[in-house]
Amino acid sequence: MISMMWKMLISSFGCESRPLIIRYYCHEHLRVSIIDGNSEKECRSRALESVKFGYVVGSCNGLIFLSRTGMDLYDVDNHSNKHVVLNPNSKNIGVTIINGPSGGGTLCGFFFHPKAKECRIISVRQSNNNHFEYHLYLFGEKRWRRTKKPHFSYGPDIRQRSLNFETRIDDRPAIANDALHWYISIVGEIMVFDVITEDFSTKPHPIVVDKGGGCHLQHLSVKDNQLCFCYVGREDQSMEIWILEDYTNWSWTRKYVVDLNWDLNKYPSGANIMSADFFGGVRVICIQKNELVLFWKQRGMFSYRLDKNTVKRIRLRKSDMDWPMPDYDWLCGFQAYHPFQSINELTLL
User: What count of Cα atoms within 13 Å lies in the side-chain half-sphere of residue 41?
Assistant: First the structure.
């Protein structure tokens, strides 16, 4: 069960309305902390000490799901797809070790099922007929099973690390309206997984992308339980944010335009500002109410107020992983942290 100490953790950040951000990096072992914009608290769970390399897959109802799959090249016994779910406010309790599905697969989501009242994991692997097969982990039954309609024509975008050929989902799903959403770059559409019916489908995104010009950023996020699409074109110095205001009719509205041409004296960058990929270093972490949280590689983390068009730096604690390197996106990362919905609903651990 989730400890009541979790409520103390949330209140200890001082302001529940601020977005909470998970930060992770690998130095000797996986380290995880939570940022609220003003402070940073490190998770002291002993479970992290056994993860030499790993990454955070996602969070759900106050829990963090991380994977150590295939990360240690020199550990010949580390081929069993071990994953860890933990309560970041606990040092040695509230930890669950999960084996991956039989036959393998790539983790692509961690979500709360509103009817089963439990968190679930979704995994994908490519089948022999060039379709994709999906499996769910049910925490209540402690087992993997195939989704009700397990095969679909598409899978989430996957990237591969050249060092050890490890694969990961390129981005985490945006979860809204009891569905998981991934942007599928190969077809330029949004793949949808309904967590209730377990049906898959594809839907159009709001922007027609010039394939010749390309873009710096196409990212799905959620704002106030509405799906949103963030876009930075190849020639742009601003970010468009589109909101799916009518989910039933799939109707998008361009709601915000975020100016990214910031004062370099005030917000200096370690990257070459004349590079064509300078704006390609922008990562959308989350959007909560009117606060957009961005991480800009070699520049820092920032809070942008959508209602006031103002930007403010979020101070990060220095780490040994701050210096730029080719494996940055594999060994470090940020993502939104999702606190519990209702402590009475959770029967996960």
Answer: 16
